[in-house]
Specification:
This protein is an alpha+beta fold. The protein is built from three helices and 14 strands. A hairpin with a 4-residue loop joins strand 7 and strand 8 (140-144). Mean pLDDT is 87; it is low at 1-25. This is Lipoprotein.
Length: 219
């Protein structure tokens, strides 16, 4: 009887040890848009439409704090950020966002009030002359000052060299847009995005910056 009890006890203890050593599932990576504000020498993120505040751990993004400082010198102490990372508990504030991606940093332009963001696959913009291309599930929207916006069909292709190509040939327009993953600074506003864009519009070359929208994240 004692041997039986000892055997059962060893199984139970072994089972407890097995469960206690089971690996914890990694947290899902999140993408948050919101307001960045410098407080007591530390940048804090308040997500759009929320009251929570998150500290930032930018050790995986070298130069991130320097980017914020330079942008704040021109745009002011309150910035808009579109960031990716992992949420963790923190002793202060409502948590810690361990950054893995800087999608977008800006001092002006579409921010929390950008109602189209959740439906966007991508937005690309450039200057001199100004142009804008927005991609959605149903088509492409080309905007240029002084001209009516054009809604066109498009084809998207991932190239072997890693670039993303978007093309459209409709309504007399020949559009070729190439996107590469690289830090890009808007020449007019100083906004920082995660994609560089090159546009060939009816044979003319333009450059600019781009970022993925909320609809691409959800796909």
């Amino acid at each position: 009887m004692r041997l039986l009890l000892a055997f059962i006890s060893s199984l139970l203890l072994g089972g407890c040890q097995l469960f206690s050593e089971a690996p914890v599932a990694p947290a899902d990576e999140v993408r948050l848009q919101g307001q960045l504000r410098l407080q007591d020498g530390q940048w804090l993120l308040r997500p759009c439409g929320e009251a929570r505040l998150f500290q930032l751990d930018s050790r995986q993004l070298p130069g991130f704090n320097q980017e914020l400082q330079r942008l704040a010198e021109d745009a002011g102490p309150v910035l808009f950020a579109d960031l990716g990372g992992y949420l963790q508990a923190a002793a202060q504030q409502d948590g810690l966002l361990q950054l893995t991606q800087r999608w977008r940093l800006q001092g002006e332009g579409p921010a929390c009030n950008d109602v189209a963001f959740s439906r966007l696959l991508l937005r690309a913009t450039g200057n001199e002359p100004a142009w804008s291309i927005q991609l959605g599930q149903r088509g492409l929207l080309l905007s240029r000052p002084g001209q009516p916006a054009l809604a066109l069909p498009y084809i998207e292709e991932q190239l072997p060299d890693g670039r993303l190509q978007v093309s459209s040939q409709a309504d007399g327009e020949d559009i070729q847009l190439w996107l590469v993953s690289a830090r890009c600074v808007d020449s007019m506003t100083g906004a920082i995005s995660h994609l560089r864009a090159e546009l060939r519009l009816n044979g003319q070359r333009h450059t600019g910056c781009a970022y993925f929208g909320g609809a691409r994240q959800a796909r």
